């Protein structure tokens, strides 16, 4: 299992930050790599992403939605992955911690994917939080 983590402090209270993060369909506006997000009903979404020269489609389900502290999801097809945003109030606003774990059964493939995915996911995570912060202003 591989894990990618990223955190940032946004200058707004957790309630305002969470209100933007829980609008999953809006993530298409937060990253250049996310091309579309289709609501499938029942807290499920189909993501269309263009990365490393390829188009990727995968379905995720929200597994925990506890405003304004936790938003978590898990894949329901494709590469098994799960992610979570945890929000904590801090003096400067809100600390947002992002964690993504995924499992690929072949260790050699997992090493290669991790080498490519880690900088890519970090870029997307930073982009998302920067654009969420811009909307807070």
Query: What kind of sheet is the major sheet?
Result: 7 strands, antiparallel
Instruction: Give the total of beta strands.
Output: 7
Strand order of the largest sheet: 1-7-6-5-4-3-2
SSE string: EHEEEEEEH
Could you explain how this protein is built, in words?
The chain has 137 residues and is of the alpha+beta class. The chain is built from two helices and seven strands. It has helices at residues 14-21, 107-136; strands at 2-10, 34-41, 44-51, 54-66, 70-75, 80-90, 93-103. Strands 1-7-6-5-4-3-2 form a seven-stranded antiparallel sheet, with helices on one face. A hairpin with a 2-residue loop joins strand 3 (44-51) and strand 4. Helix 1 (14-21) packs across helix 2. The protein is globular, with a radius of gyration of 15 Å. The protein starts with a strand and ends with a helix. The mean pLDDT is 87.
List the helices and strands and how they pair.
Layout: E1 2-10, H1 14-21, E2 34-41, E3 44-51, E4 54-66, E5 70-75, E6 80-90, E7 93-103, H2 107-136
Antiparallel strand pairs: 1-7, 2-3, 3-4, 4-5, 5-6, 6-7
Helix pairs in contact: 1-2
Quick summary:
This protein is an alpha+beta fold and 137 residues long.
Short descriptors:
7 strands, alpha+beta, 48% strand, 7-stranded antiparallel β-sheet, 137 residues, 2 helices
